[in-house]
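[agent] plan:
  1. take the single chain provided in the ticket
  2. run structure prediction with default settings
  3. attach structure tokens to the ticket
  4. add a short note for the reviewer (M.T.)
[agent] executing step 1
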Amino acid sequence: MPADTRDTSGGFLRNGPRREREGDMRRVIQWGTGSVGRHAIAAVHGHPDLRVVGGFVYSEAKAGRDVGEICGIGDLGVRATRDRDEILALDADCVLYMAQGEMNPAGALDDICRLLASGKNVISTAVTSFIYPRSAGKEVVDQLEAACAAGGTSFHGTGIEPGWAAEVLPLTMSPLFRRIDSLLVQEILDYSTYDSAAMLFDIMGFGRAPDAPVPMADPAIAGSVFHAPIMMVADGLGATIDELRHDRSVTVAGAGFDITAGRVEAGTVSAQRFSCTAVINGRAALTVEHITRVGDGQAPDWPTGRGWRVTVEGEPSMTLESRIAVHDEDENDQGCLGTAMHAVHTIAPLCQAEPGIRTFLDLPLLTGRHVFAGGGAPR
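[agent] step 2 finished; step 3 output follows
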């Protein structure tokens, strides 16, 4: 791997002569302009240290349009494209890769590796396992590391859950404990306003029969959503996982109703809870669970809330509650905003990191620089 030297702006010189920059402005390409990507573009545009220089879209209807106009913040002078080679040819410091990668992880990996090898750092919210690539297997790790070495670049996977609640919160809390007997992370959200029929119906199985063969009904696939955060936390706390156990249960709608993404008929899935538990030292010690509804009245006997909860039994015992949309905003849109910002605030430290895969265990404490100055608002 080529040696890197620091430049005066705090970045690394990667594989060749220093690239000229507009002061300390980092050039950012936005890959994907959906529910998360549109928030990311607005945040990058409004950030004093960042500049949007490119945008990749999947829809023909979006191709050729200004990325700012697509995202509702006015023209930025940056045209969206569906041409991967055009994106690869751009000179940029970082790519925010926000495709729906769970539908095609191999395709997402190929995109990401090409971007890394072209000399661009990549931050991805696309595939859960990429938050801790070791959970996806040696082949994925080797491909990412080889691409980073070729481009002198760094890769980071992130999100909000997984990507923050199940990783950053427990790791940040852990120095307070003398002993942890069990640690439970729960996401409790209503997805009725989430505008993705593919995710809700085709992947998760809402609006389908309880025994429909959707990906989330497959224990191996459903459990794999949580393998990355569980393995990361275990490694971060110096624990060895004996085995992983998966669980899923569903309830069905008593009557049909409409949600933003479509219709849920009577007798089809309207709420589900799925989890993965790591057995450590012979006991069920670390669990990540999602309790997901598509309507307030569904599964009323299950835990309720709006956000994330970390419960620790040990010395001391502790519960950390993180509620989102506290002023009754749309919790799904607020979650997408949080996901986007977690990625945007990682740009600077990732660009300064040494080449290679960089997880939360490798990067310094991430902070929201400029948030008091309104850095996330469009200029």
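[agent] step 4 note for reviewer: Confidence is low (pLDDT under 50) at residues 1-22, 375-379.
[agent] ticket updated
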